[in-house]
Write a structure and sequence with these properties.
This protein has one helix at 20-29; strands spanning 7-11, 36-47, 55-66, 69-81, 84-92, 95-100. By secondary structure, the chain is mainly beta. The longest helix has 10 residues, at 20-29.
Length: 102
């Protein structure tokens, strides 16, 4: 469905975000405490028609934390036009890279 401003969130595997030392320590104490975690959030920020959308923008974010310190934060934006991916961009460490799909 296409529901504007509804956010989807989930936890994702840490193996893609931890360095090897953090991963080894986390694996060792995981049965007792998780000090690192990675979370995913996604929502539709713009849509032209809720019933039959042809243009929409989806914003997603992945954030990895060590206790409460955020050590990796990536934001993705996908722009859909005429039911195809028109543009894809991501921002990491303040640097935004965009790709136009022609």
């Amino acid at each position: 469905g296409c529901y504007e401003k509804i956010e989807v969130s989930d936890s994702i595997p840490l193996i893609h975000f931890n360095n090897k030392m953090f991963q080894w320590i986390q694996d060792f104490i995981a049965p007792f405490y998780r000090f690192t975690k990675a979370e995913y959030k996604s929502s539709i920020s713009k849509v032209d028609n809720l019933l039959d959308p042809t243009n929409a923008t989806i914003i997603s974010q992945i954030e990895a934390k060590f206790i409460s310190y955020s050590f990796r934060d990536i934001t993705f934006e996908i722009e859909l036009k005429d039911k195809n991916i028109h543009q894809f961009s991501f921002t990491q460490k303040g640097i935004k890279k965009s790709f136009l799909c022609v």
